[in-house]
């Protein structure tokens, strides 16, 4: 059976505290900016997807995805 390696986002000096809310949100925004700039197939964006998926609760991601679809997302995309 293949061994699965689990990783989380690397430490980021912009977020020095244990509360990772802003880190999560920033990585989510970075991913969607990357996709908007480079396209859905860009592998350069994969790292940002891994980061926000490791940091963000699923409920937040679902809510933000709905907000992006509705044009009400509060972040700078």
From TrEMBL:
Main location: mitochondrion
Domain of life according to the entry: Eukaryota
Keyword Mitochondrion applies: yes
Protein's cellular compartments: Mitochondrion
Pfam families: COX6B
Gene3D superfamilies: Cytochrome c oxidase, subunit VIb
UniProt cross-references to InterPro entries, sorted A to Z: COX6B-like (IPR048280), CX6/COA6-like_sf (IPR036549), Cyt_c_oxidase_su6B (IPR003213)
Keywords assigned by UniProt, alphabetized: Disulfide bond, Mitochondrion
Biological function: Component of the cytochrome c oxidase, the last enzyme in the mitochondrial electron transport chain which drives oxidative phosphorylation.
Entry similarity comment: Belongs to the cytochrome c oxidase subunit 6B.
UniProt-recorded name of the protein: Cytochrome c oxidase subunit
Lineage per the UniProt record: Eukaryota, Viridiplantae, Streptophyta, Embryophyta, Tracheophyta
